């Protein structure tokens, strides 16, 4: 039995404490904490009866804000869904982008998305449905989240891009964003590490204390509402390349 150091390890198990990786044509050794977990390491699913067919869906979420204009500008946020199971040429079709709804400038994203979160949690465990007139289990999970640069950081629970380390996938300082020779293995953000940091933040008493500790980790005082679903907040929140360059 081989398990990672950050997991529960029995006395009879072989402990892996270091990993070897290649960087700039040289081999390096680092702590095992600087490695990504497989989804099976932190996600458990209910075993479904094998007598019925099982359909698995991956749902991508798009979150975008834009201006509407009539005499004055108004900010409007749009949330769209797409099924990643579709072939790429079909996903590009406008008819296969499904509008979940719009959030006005006075609205609250968390309140709006809560019904979607609740329904997705049911689908994560499997839901018995009729498919072509036949009973079947349908499982759905959140695929990737795509958003503008500020909202993307919100979805990952990371402070926005004007923070010292405002990248939601790497622990890279603002002044080093254009440095292409960085050791990504050591500066990447890892989901399970961020989980521990959020637990520390939430244990603090008072909003000011939470914000202070969060600023040390470059994290928001509260994790994203999407963390109620089974996902990796860093790997499944895509970088918006255009806005990264634009900013």
Automatic annotation (TrEMBL):
This is Uncharacterized protein.
